[in-house]
Design a protein that fits this description.
globular; 2 domains; alpha/beta; two-stranded antiparallel ribbon; Rossmann fold; Helicase, Ruva Protein, domain 3
């Protein structure tokens, strides 16, 4: 077994070298924000969608556009507004008066990378149309069903500071996102670099270093990364501790958690941990990989009670207690 893991480690180390190229191209355009950049790469490798939450002006949209440039992917940006219709996203049937027939006009969803800006600004019908496409990887227009391109990734942004005129995503729909990533302000030194970078006459641009088919091959490699049985047990313990905290000596959380993490959390903790090991050029998952991505995978899947909200205890507070209490293998 050790010999097999050694060979796998060597293969992953060789096949993951392009990750350094992606990070280098990101650094030309995006100053700092390493956490967000790594989560975008993990989402791409784990074949999942990512919800980015942060105040305006911290490079969320620029990061997504840069990712599309780096992997030579088709990119579409959809600005969600209250008057948006499902047909504006997935497409519709258009009547040809001369021929007396209907033709299909595909919407912007038919691209590799979709940026949905301010997803909580659109009404429920539009959100549902998008989330159905995310889940099924196909769209039905009229009587025809069309597969979406591969790779296909939705990166949605959400503004947490302004709730007027918004339609918050229901918890069941938020659960379809692989990760919910909180994007914070850059530190003082990074912001100085941003100021100087954007003061240049010619704005920096990332070069394409991989192709979409390279990402598809890398996804298959990521699934080969070794996950020990003890790591699987650790993942299950973390998820079940959010459902039955008293079984893990966390009696104080029983009154604070309304709903624990869904089975998707178990699947996504594993796949994201494998992707995190891949970007570290490693052929096996460690407990630190789980702990690194746990907050981003779990924060939108743990629903706290009204009592917790009254005491200003958040889902993140609960997850930190779980991570601190569950035994690490």
């Amino acid at each position: 077994m050790n010999e097999e893991i050694t060979k796998l480690n060597e293969r992953i180390a060789a096949e993951s070298q392009f990750i350094d190229d992606i990070r280098r191209e990101f650094a030309k355009v995006i100053v700092g924000q390493r956490h967000m950049v790594d989560r975008l790469i993990i989402g791409l490798l784990a074949d999942g969608h990512v919800l980015l939450e942060g105040v305006p002006g911290i490079a969320k949209t620029l990061s997504v556009r840069t990712l599309a440039d780096i992997i030579q992917a088709d990119f579409r940006r959809i600005q969600f507004t209250p008057d948006l219709l499902p047909a504006d996203i997935i497409g519709t049937l258009v009547y040809n008066q001369a021929k007396g027939t209907f033709t299909t006009k595909q919407g912007p969803i038919f691209s590799n990378i979709i940026l949905t800006d301010e997803i909580n600004r659109a009404p429920a019908k539009v959100q549902s149309a998008l989330l159905e496409a995310m889940q099924e990887r196909q769209v039905t227009i009229g009587d025809e069903t069309f597969p979406l391109p591969n790779p296909f990734m939705v990166l949605a942004t959400q503004n947490p500071i302004e709730q007027q005129g918004t339609y918050p995503l229901p918890e069941a729909q938020v659960d379809r996102f692989l990760m919910k990533v909180i994007v914070n302000y850059p530190d003082r030194d990074d912001e100085r670099k941003v100021m100087r970078l954007h003061g240049q006459i010619q704005q920096p641009k990332a070069n394409a270093v991989v192709k979409p088919e390279d990402i598809i091959r890398a996804r298959a490699t990521v699934r080969d990364i070794y996950v020990d049985e003890k790591i699987e047990t650790y993942i299950l313990d973390l998820v079940f501790a959010t459902r039955n905290p008293s079984h893990f000596g966390l009696d104080e959380l029983s009154e604070l958690i309304q709903y624990g993490a869904s089975p998707r959390a178990t699947l996504y903790l594993r796949s994201c941990a494998q992707a995190n090991a891949f970007i570290q050029h490693r052929g096996f998952v460690t407990p630190e990989d789980i702990r690194t991505i746990a907050m981003d995978v779990l924060r939108h899947r743990v629903i706290v009670t009204y009592e917790a909200e009254a005491e200003e205890i958040t889902a993140e507070d609960v997850i930190r207690k779980v991570l601190g209490a569950v035994e690490v293998p």
